[in-house]
Design goal:
single chain; alpha/beta; 434 Repressor (Amino-terminal Domain); Rossmann fold; six-stranded parallel β-sheet; six-stranded mixed β-sheet; disordered N terminus
């Protein structure tokens, strides 16, 4: 900033940047708004002038030119079940995006509590923010656990309050991906949609990950193997169970005891109790995520079973829970942060080229061997 501007306390303008760079005001505007056909040397001169003057673009004025908000909605979407009447948001008073009151019973309490308790969602947020922030774009966190909340998300996007949506769906019957796709709104989904929808998505080869777990247990010499599946109304839970069963069958194990869990530590504990009651001689367990595997380890220890000497345990995700477990978990790594960043990249590509067709990116799992198996 020039001495005159500093003494006057005035905010630097486009004209100040233009004078410092030795170009026209229009050229400065084109560089700041990302117009591509500007000579790289001139672009560098303008950026240097912006740094020297301390100029900060007016977002409101810029959005009139670019028709962009530089914000995207990060939507965590749940089932079609309405939340319990009287459930409140984090501040005790649920509000709509525009500050109004939602319909009675449309609060988010239990749903948001589950979201924030699951380390998976923190990893998604990390990947999204780390990708978007250097590009000057900010996520707006939204929840869509009811018909009312889904309508709010679609309206928010239609009004142009965000440039597009990154959707993390937690239930196979979630209608939001199809609603957004049918409305022609830019969006990318974490995990493939179970309902037909023309929408880009990222996902993991879950069956391949379960195959890695099965082969590792067999290679250790385990022969009386059971599994704690994730919820079987969730595609990832279905795929991990199917991949595990298929691999075991290929190796001569046509029947594998299964106890369904809910992707929580508590459900893993309950499932492990059931398996020990029905199959006390088991010597290997594959759990559909790390939280359930941690719960399984706790129950095994309570029953005097050593991990991995008596029972080998493998989880899935390679979340923070895997390293914190005692013993540390052998687990199938899902690169959540990388997958979330790829979601953001696909969305920005779609915003830059609105006619770009929907696409999918499938990540490959890897086995991380630690002490539990």
């Amino acid at each position: 900033m020039t001495d005159a501007l500093r003494s006057a306390g005035a905010a630097p303008t486009l004209e100040d940047v233009a004078r410092a760079a030795g170009v026209s005001r229009a050229t400065v505007s084109r560089v700041i708004n990302g117009v591509r056909n500007v000579d790289p040397t001139i672009q560098e001169a303008v950026r240097e002038a912006v740094s020297v003057t301390g100029y900060t673009p007016n977002r409101a004025a810029r959005s009139l030119v670019t028709r962009r908000t530089d914000a995207v909605a990060l939507v965590v979407s749940g089932t079609g079940v309405e939340p319990a009447e009287g459930a409140d948001g984090a501040d005790g008073e649920p509000h709509t995006a525009d500050g109004g009151e939602p319909p009675e019973g449309a609060g988010e309490g239990s749903f948001t509590a589950r979201v924030f308790a699951d380390p998976f969602f923190g990893r998604v947020v990390t990947g999204v923010v780390d990708y978007l922030r250097p590009r000057g774009i900010h996520p707006v966190l939204m929840f869509a656990e009811s018909a009312w909340a889904r309508d709010e998300v679609v309206a928010y996007l239609r009004q142009g309050s965000a440039d597009g949506a990154l959707i993390v769906s937690t239930h196979a019957e979630d209608p939001l991906p199809a609603l957004v796709a049918e409305a022609g709104l830019p969006a990318v989904l974490y995990a493939r949609p179970t309902r037909p929808a023309r929408i880009s998505y990222v996902d993991l080869a879950h069956r391949d990950g379960a195959r890695l777990a099965a082969e590792h247990l067999l290679a250790r010499g385990c022969r009386r193997i059971a599994t704690i599946s994730g919820p079987l109304d969730v595609p990832a839970g279905q795929d991990r169970l199917a991949g595990f069963q298929e691999t075991m069958a290929r190796h001569g194990h046509p029947y594998i005891p299964v106890a369904e869990g809910g992707f929580t530590q508590e459900s893993g504990e309950a499932a492990m109790e059931r398996l020990l009651t029905e199959h006390p001689g088991l010597d290997g367990v594959f759990a559909g995520n790390d939280l359930m595997a941690t719960g399984a380890c706790h129950v095994l220890r309570d029953h005097g079973r050593k991990v991995p000497e008596d029972v080998a345990v493998i989880g899935f995700d390679d979340s923070g829970a895997a390293a914190a477990c005692r013993p540390p978990l052998t687990t199938v790594r899902q690169p959540v942060e990388d997958m979330a960043a790829e979601m953001a990249r696909l969305l920005l590509d779609r915003l830059a080229e609105p006619d770009r067709p929907a696409t999918s990116v499938i990540f490959e799992p890897t086995l991380v061997v630690r002490a539990s198996a």
